[in-house]
Amino acid sequence: MKNDPSLLDILRQQGVSRRGFLKFCAATASLMALPPGMAPVIAKALEQARRPSVIWLSFQECTGCTESLTRSHAPTLEGLIFDAISLDYHHTLQAASGTAAEEARKTAMEENRGKYLLVVDGSIPTGNAGYSTIAGISNLDMLKEVAAGAAAIIAVGTCAAFGGLPHASPNPTGAVAVSDIITDKPIVNVSGCPPIPVVITGVLAHFLTFGSLPELDHLGRPMAFYGNNIHDRCYRRPFYERGQFAESFDDEGAKKGWCLYKLGCKGPVTYNACATTKWNNGTSFPIESGHGCLGCSEPNFWDMGGFYNALSEPSKGTGNALGWGVAAGAALGAASGLMARREKDHASRSHQQVTVDDLKREESP
Ligand code: FSX
């Protein structure tokens, strides 16, 4: 560990300038909803940070969580952060297999006892030890063994955080969340099916910087990313307020970008950062692509009554607004379309994306 390069060394090797590094620290502070004055503190901590050992266990899941992380546009800040940790075990990504892979896990556990980070994706079956095993070890036994020496645990994805898809009724495997099994370690839930890559790496960056986990909500999720619901940050929100709703996926309202509430959007009851952080390097998110939010970062989202069923009827006030909106006719529709584009543009601008390419362009004169 002593001769391991620091994060700053690694960033320099990748061509990131000092100014770019400071910009990265400011973006991390903003990402974690920390005051701007914290950026120099983050810079100092990251300059000296050594690569922490991370053991990543995948249980009952679809591998979407790992896919989400690795499919991010490369190179990205997420990629850099992953270069800055020692990912000692991840059976989807590691080159080693069989005995060698298990030896790597044991070695990482012994050499870093009490200090390593455990990341878990997937739920844990409790109905039968044989439902899901790795190297002949049940998920339940492996979780308990690795958690015992961990400094903290990050439950990545709704399966690990709340049980997710395997937990959906009738839950044939008796699937449970990490926090149902492990009760004596700090756990942060990074929910979403899958979660946003930058949310996973944001939590890792916080751990690298402060040696602790970020502030959490009542479901154990980082407040910085799960403190607001999708609806409150959605660029279609003004249409909801005016009672302008798409009634089908191919009607005029849908074409004009009106609110998707009546088509089952779960944005009002879903807490996540999709509307601001977005996906695919800040390109878009489901609502921007014309589909309602499924509510995938909430517990039991598979059993919440149908993806295309509206939460409830809009209030009387918005219903009246709907009538007014329809009566106003095509001119208003055109104006609304323009407004939607403006709101969309504004929403895009209000979240500053910083990519590695940006950092490399920031070379000092
Ligand atoms: Fe679950 Fe993740 Fe959904 Fe899939 O590992 S949260 S089913 S995206 O893969 O666990």
Explained architecture:
- The structure is a single chain.
- By secondary structure, the chain is α/β, with parallel strands linked by helices.
- The chain folds into two domains: 7-225, NADH:ubiquinone oxidoreductase-like, 20kDa subunit (Rossmann fold); 230-350, Cytochrome-c3 Hydrogenase, Chain A, domain 2 (Irregular), CATH 4.10.480.10.
- Helices cover 43% and strands 10% of the residues.
- The strands form three sheets. It has a five-stranded parallel beta sheet with strand order 2-1-3-7-9, sandwiched between helices. The protein has a two-stranded antiparallel ribbon with strand order 4-8.
- Helix 2 packs across helix 3 (39-48) and helix 5 packs across helix 11 (197-210).
- The longest helix has 22 residues, at 329-350.
- It is globular.
- The two termini are 35 Å apart.
- The model is unreliable at 314-365 (pLDDT under 50).
- It is found in: Cell envelope.
- Belongs to the [NiFe]/[NiFeSe] hydrogenase small subunit family.
- It catalyses: H2 + A = AH2.
- The chain crosses the membrane at residues 21-43.
- [4Fe-4S] cluster 1 binds at residues 62, 65, 159, 193.
In percent, how helical is the residue content? 40-55%
The biggest sheet, with number of strands, parallel, antiparallel or mixed sense and barrel status, is: 5 strands, parallel
Count of β-strands: 9
In DSSP terms (H or I, runs of 4 or more residues), the helix count works out at 19
Ions, cofactors and other bound molecules: ligand FSX
CATH top level label of the largest domain: Alpha Beta
Question: Total domains, how many?
Answer: 2
Mean pLDDT reading: 81
Distance between the termini: 35 Å
The secondary-structure class comes to alpha/beta
Poorly predicted regions are: 314-365
In what order do the strands lie side by side in the largest sheet?
2-1-3-7-9
Question: Could you name the CATH topology of the largest domain?
Answer: Rossmann fold
Beta percentage is: 5-15%
Gross geometry: globular
Binding site for [3Fe-4S] cluster: 274, 293, 296
Transmembrane segments: 21-43
Domain Cytochrome-c3 hydrogenase C-terminal: 226-304
Region (Disordered): 341-365
